[in-house]
């Protein structure tokens, strides 16, 4: 017989999130405009919060929509935010918007990922990266962090692997802290076990001439340099949309831009 760990009830779950955000009861109560007594009663289970109170506290804890739904369920209420498959008819406008962004970014690479860093979509120019990766790492579901840092992935081709690896792991660590997701924590542990051929800075500091952390890729006997931006839906009310991110890569120098333009003409 397999033992199961019971889910936290809403009060202890709220307390856990408050402590994870390093907030005292007084600070949390002030943010949510309620009394510390009321908050204490909610956290200890002496008072059952209304759905509105759960969502108010979740909002001031800056919780993802998925976690807000879990808190509502823990309090005995229905989830407030739908989670719709991206392929569903009602998501047609969102799919079109994503494809428009991807197509409009050509001839530069762009990729869409979910909250677990699984690749959802990409434009054709992403092959500048994926052509360097072992085929088994590109079998669905494709995890872009694993592809980036695995020794059979992009890692051997990254000239500044230590710097780029530290940047990606710092992003993942912040996400683990924000979401408290066990799957992301396991991914973080896996990636930190991969080898690196360069020093990893504890703090991201700019190198000579750098204004962002670049991705420097060895390519055809030379080096390409990229900077990236991340776009999300501005006002998502669906869990799926809230968890999508579009990372767009731009050339950081003219040589990289020229290589990408030439590839698009083939």
TrEMBL record:
Stored Gene3D superfamilies: 3.30.450.180, lambda repressor-like DNA-binding domains
InterPro entries in the cross-refs: Cro/C1-type_HTH, Lambda_DNA-bd_dom_sf, MLTR_LBD
Name of the molecule in the record: XRE family transcriptional regulator
Domain HTH cro/C1-type: 14-68
A GO molecular-function descriptor: DNA binding
PANTHER family given in the database record: BLL4672 PROTEIN-RELATED, BLL5781 PROTEIN
């Amino acid at each position: 017989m397999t033992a199961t760990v019971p889910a936290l009830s809403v009060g202890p779950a709220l307390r856990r999130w408050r402590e994870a955000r390093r907030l005292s009861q007084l600070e949390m109560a002030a943010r949510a405009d309620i009394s510390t007594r009321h908050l204490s009663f909610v956290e200890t289970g002496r008072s059952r919060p209304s759905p509105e109170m759960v969502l108010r506290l979740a909002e001031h804890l800056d919780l993802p929509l998925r976690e807000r739904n879990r808190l509502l369920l823990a309090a005995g209420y229905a989830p407030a935010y739908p989670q719709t498959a991206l392929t569903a008819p009602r998501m047609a406008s969102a799919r079109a918007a994503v494809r428009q962004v991807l197509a409009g970014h050509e001839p530069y690479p762009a990729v869409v990922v979910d909250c677990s860093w699984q690749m959802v979509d990409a434009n054709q120019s992403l092959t500048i990266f994926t052509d360097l990766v072992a085929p088994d790492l590109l079998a669905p579901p494709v995890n872009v962090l694993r592809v980036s840092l695995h020794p059979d992935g992009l890692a051997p081709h990254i000239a500044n692997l230590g710097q780029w690896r530290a940047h990606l792991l710092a992003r993942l660590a912040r996400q683990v802290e924000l979401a408290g997701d066990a799957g992301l924590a396991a991914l973080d542990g896996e990636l930190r076990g991969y080898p690196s051929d360069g020093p990893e800075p504890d703090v991201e500091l700019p190198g000579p001439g750098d204004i962002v952390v670049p991705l420097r890729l060895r390519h055809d006997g030379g080096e390409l340099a990229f900077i990236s931006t991340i776009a999300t839906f501005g006002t998502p009310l669906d869990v799926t949309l809230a968890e999508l991110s579009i990372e767009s890569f731009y050339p950081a120098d003219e040589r990289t831009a020229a290589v990408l333009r030439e590839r698009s003409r083939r």
